Amino acid sequence: MDxxxxxxxxxxxxxxxxxxxxxxxxxxxxxxxxxxxxWIDATPLRIYSPEQLAERIDKESATVVICEADLCSGxxxxxxxxxxxxxxxxxxxxxxxxxxxxxxxxxxxxGRNADAVAELTVGLLIAATRRIVSADRDVRECxxxxxxxxxxxxxxxxxxxxxxxxxxxLGAVGKATKWRMEGLGLKVIACDPYSxxxxxxxxxxxxxxxxxSMHTPLTPGTDHMIGSEQFDxxxxxxxxxxxxxARLHDEAALVDALxxxxxxxxxxxxxxxxxxxxxxxxxxxxxxxxxxxxxGATYDTETNHTTMVADGLEQLLAGKVPSNLANSEAVDxxxxxxASGPSTEIAPH
Length: 349
Hints:
Elements: E1 12-16, H1 23-31, E2 32-36, H2 50-60, E3 64-67, E4 83-86, H3 96-101, E5 106-107, H4 114-130, H5 132-140, H6 151-154, E6 164-168, H7 172-183, E7 187-191, H8 202-208, E8 211-214, H9 228-233, E9 238-242, H10 251-259, E10 263-268, E11 288-290, H11 299-317, H12 337-340
Parallel strand pairs: 1-2, 1-3, 3-4, 4-5, 6-7, 6-8, 8-9, 9-10, 10-11
Helix pairs in contact: 1-11, 4-7
C-alpha cells in the first residue's frame, strides 16, 4: 500500500450522491474533497443511470463514489475510481461482479436502518390492532359518534400483550424487532434458515403465530414465499405485517385473505412499483394500514450509514480489509485499484 502514502496536499475527491450526516461526515471531509449532491434533496427526483453517473464522475474528477440509489455498473467502472461506498445494507444498486472484475472495492452499511424499521413495525402493529388510522379520521371528520355508535363500541380490540409474534427473517431488523416485541409482552418466535437463534420452521411459525412479520431479504428463494397456502394455514384472525419487500407475499392472496376474514388486519410499508394503483382493493380496507416505504426514513439511519462508510473507507485506504466490504474478492484481484491508484493521506480524527 505504499502508493497510498502521499503528500498532505494530494487529496482524493469523492462524489457524494447519498445523504450523509454526523461525525462520519466530518471524518470523510478530512479524508476527501467532497462534492456533495444527495439525490434525496434533488427536485425533481433524480436517480442517475450508469451512464449519467459516469459522466458526473468524470466532470467532478472523482476517485471515490458514495451513493445510495444511483446505479453503478458498466461505464461507471470505466472511470478511474478507487472505491464505491453504497449506503445500503445490501448494495443492490451496485453490480458487485462488475466492480470486482474491475478491482473496485464496494463498501456497504449493514444494519443501518434496523432500529428505524423495527420502530415502524411496532407502530404499524399498534395502528393495525387498535385501528388508530380510522379513529383519527373519525375525530378529524367530527364523526366521533359515527352511525349512532360510541368509539368504545367501534374500536374495541385485543391487547397484543400475551400474543405470539412470529418473525420471518432474524437478521439485523428481525433482531431489533424481537426485543421490542418482547418488551411489549409478546411471545416471540422466529424462523430463518441462516440463523442459529431460530425457534421453528416457517410452517410451524405460521401455525403458532397470532401476528406474522416479514423481515427477510428478497431473494429468488423468498420471492412470494407467503401465498394462498400460507395465508390459509394462518390462525383465524391473524395479523400480517410486511416492512421488508412487497414481493415476499402474494398481493392477490393477501387481498383474498383479508376479504374472506381469515386475517383480522394487515400493515404494509412497501409495494411493487413503490405505490398502489388508484382503486386498489387494499386502499378501501379500514383494517389495513399502509405506509409508503418509510421504514428506514430517519436521520439516525443517515448518521449510521455515514459512520459505517467512513469506517470502511478509512480502513481501505490504510491497507486493511473492512468488515463491511461487500466484495472482498476485489482486494485480492491483480487489478485492485487502491493498490496501484493515486496516493492519498488520511488525516487524523
